[in-house]
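Re: [ENG-882] Designed sequences occasionally contain unexpected residues at chain ends

Forwarding the minimal case from QA. Structure tokens:
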């Protein structure tokens, strides 16, 4: 309850302050203008200190998403200040400034305008594993000197990578193919390399599912139980009491949550902050995203309407934190490293947080292509890793099963599907087999899991960028089809 009061008070202060500040543009007041600047500040901060990218490259590939931002920057209307000692990046435009601060293993966090402090204690997250260079793949990064998978058509894999990176406007960062658990092709572009923590965006939703699966395997949660959100379960007559963990995984909770696309004017009018869609607000505002998502009322009966909304993975994130801290009694920020990452060879996965220390695994997360390949391989092995069942086999089956609330069979449990129904609807990538399912993130991030061919394919790109090629997906799909054909010469697609 105390945290809720703090959030309400914060937004009250922000909204009241609007009337006291000078209007800066036709779109609204400085508070609204600031929300447009927090994203660029945070993205630049992460590029500098999480990914350690060249700053000019990062600006044009990941920070300045569109032509307007580029024009504003090059005209001097938009500027950035990098404070090396305080590890703060500020974006300024027309007298309004927004900032983000680097906090080590929690990455970069959007700050409130009045302070450079956050409302949690950052924590160093260390792996127990020895240096990756000293261990063989997949627990390390050492690769065999000879081809680990004879019979693979290397020429086709080379052609696939060449096509994937053939247009610089695609802003492609990585192309990696695992066959039978071994790396058979790996290539990088746009300044990226094997050890770079790349912006993974909504692939992090699938990481949320994996952490839930880990807690199910450990016996702390059940897939079909009513979601243990105290505000829901302890309020008599609250219809949200019927929301199950499975419904949240299927993005079918029915919680009222607006999004810029796919929402009616009436739904947008009910947004938590007027003029801001609920789906996006956790990326731009210094709020408690878990309190926010669990505070929304019910719009649809659970498991009847599937919609891509951040409400459901944020609520699952809340359940992860609550279970780790209140049920298991362990430290939250380092728990994924101990209970998942160390077990599958991931030494550093940066999950950025909100100002309250809640993981924003819907987008603000950074992993290497090899680490995402390890996650894909875990699913390919039905949750088993080196003799230990890390996530239940039934859970792996669940995430790749079409969610009944969705109109088309394109979504499972925080994973996208490639299933086609009787009418042919649903197959999203014709170049890939229909049993493919994948983690996916904005801007061209995907970890494709293909059980029928014992394949995992990871593709990563820089998010956005002005003048992004409009036909980039054609090249990606061609590359994906060739990768499958490299292990199965009979594979064809239209």
């Amino acid at each position: 309850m105390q945290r809720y009061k703090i959030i309400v008070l914060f937004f009250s202060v922000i909204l009241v302050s609007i009337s006291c500040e000078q209007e800066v543009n036709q779109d609204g007041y400085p508070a609204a203008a600031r929300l447009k600047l927090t994203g660029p500040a945070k993205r630049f901060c992460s590029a500098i200190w999480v990914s350690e990218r060249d700053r000019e490259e990062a600006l044009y590939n990941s920070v300045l998403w569109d032509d307007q931002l580029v024009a504003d920057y090059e005209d001097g209307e938009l500027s950035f200040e990098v404070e090396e000692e305080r590890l703060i990046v500020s974006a300024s435009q027309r007298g309004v400034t927004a900032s983000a601060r680097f906090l080590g293993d929690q990455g970069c966090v959007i700050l409130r305008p009045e302070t450079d402090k956050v409302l949690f204690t950052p924590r160093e997250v260390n792996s127990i594993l020895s240096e990756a260079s000293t261990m063989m793949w997949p627990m390390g990064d050492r690769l065999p000197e000879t081809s680990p998978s004879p019979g693979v058509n290397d020429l086709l894999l080379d052609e696939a990578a060449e096509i994937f990176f053939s247009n610089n406007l695609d802003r492609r960062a990585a192309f990696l193919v695992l066959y039978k658990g071994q790396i058979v092709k790996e290539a990088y572009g746009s300044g990226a390399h094997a050890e770079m923590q790349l912006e993974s965006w909504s692939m992090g939703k699938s990481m949320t599912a994996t952490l839930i699966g880990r807690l199910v395997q450990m016996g702390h949660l059940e897939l079909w139980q009513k979601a243990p959100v105290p505000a829901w379960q302890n309020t008599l007559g609250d219809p949200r009491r019927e929301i199950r963990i499975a419904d949240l995984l299927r993005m079918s909770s029915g919680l009222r949550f607006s999004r810029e696309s796919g929402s009616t004017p009436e739904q947008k009018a009910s947004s938590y902050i007027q003029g801001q869609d609920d789906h996006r607000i956790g990326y731009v505002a210094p709020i408690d995203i878990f309190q926010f998502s669990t505070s929304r009322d019910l719009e649809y009966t659970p498991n009847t309407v599937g919609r891509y909304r951040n409400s459901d993975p944020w609520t699952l994130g809340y359940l992860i934190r609550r279970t780790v801290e209140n049920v298991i009694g362990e430290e939250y920020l380092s728990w994924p490293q101990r209970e998942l990452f160390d077990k599958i060879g991931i030494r550093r996965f940066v999950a950025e947080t909100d100002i309250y220390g809640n993981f924003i695994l819907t987008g603000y997360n950074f992993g290497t292509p090899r680490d995402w390949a390890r996650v894909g391989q875990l699913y390919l092995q039905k949750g088993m890793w080196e003799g230990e069942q890390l996530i239940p086999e039934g859970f792996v089956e669940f995430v790749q099963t079409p969610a009944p609330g969705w109109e088309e069979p394109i979504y499972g449990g925080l994973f996208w599907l490639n299933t086609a129904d009787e009418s042919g609807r649903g197959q999203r990538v014709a170049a890939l087999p229909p049993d493919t399912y994948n983690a996916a993130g904005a801007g061209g991030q995907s970890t494709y899991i293909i059980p029928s061919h014992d394949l995992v394919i990871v593709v990563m790109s820089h998010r956005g960028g002005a003048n992004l090629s409009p036909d980039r997906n054609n090249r990606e799909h061609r590359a994906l089809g060739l990768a499958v054909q490299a292990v199965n010469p009979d594979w064809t697609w239209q």
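QA comment: On inspection the terminal residues look reasonable. Residues 1-28 have pLDDT under 50 and may be disordered. Proposing we downgrade this to a documentation issue.
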